[in-house]
Design brief:
This protein is of the alpha+beta class. It has a single domain, classed as 3-Layer(aba) Sandwich (GIY-YIG endonuclease), CATH 3.40.1440. Helix content is 36%, strand content 24%. The protein has a three-stranded antiparallel β-sheet with strand order 2-1-3. Helix 2 packs across helix 3.
Length: 87
């Protein structure tokens, strides 16, 4: 399985990524090993979608990184914390 995942960062941004090992990848974010997220810790795993293939995961990741895709993800897939819900 491949996963498209959504992290809420300390600055209230949503980070979208994909991986075939969600536990390992989330640990690398949490441990500050990912350049894109290390300055905005802690990162909270808010949601993920499991799909069968890498190609499908990469396609969804690209969509969810777009403006309309991110809006759909926030509205339908992500429960934001009470402190960032107004953002």
């Amino acid at each position: 399985m491949w996963y498209v995942y959504f992290l809420e960062l300390a600055n209230s941004d949503i980070y979208v990524g994909s991986t075939n090992d969600l536990k390992r990848r989330f640990a690398s974010h949490r441990d500050g090993q990912v350049t894109s997220t290390k300055a905005h810790q802690p990162a909270i795993l808010r949601s993920y979608v499991a799909v069968e293939t890498e190609d499908h995961a990469r396609e969804l990741e690209g969509y969810f990184k777009s403006g309309s895709g991110k809006a759909v993800a926030i509205k339908r897939l992500i429960r934001r914390s009470a402190t960032s819900a107004g953002n």
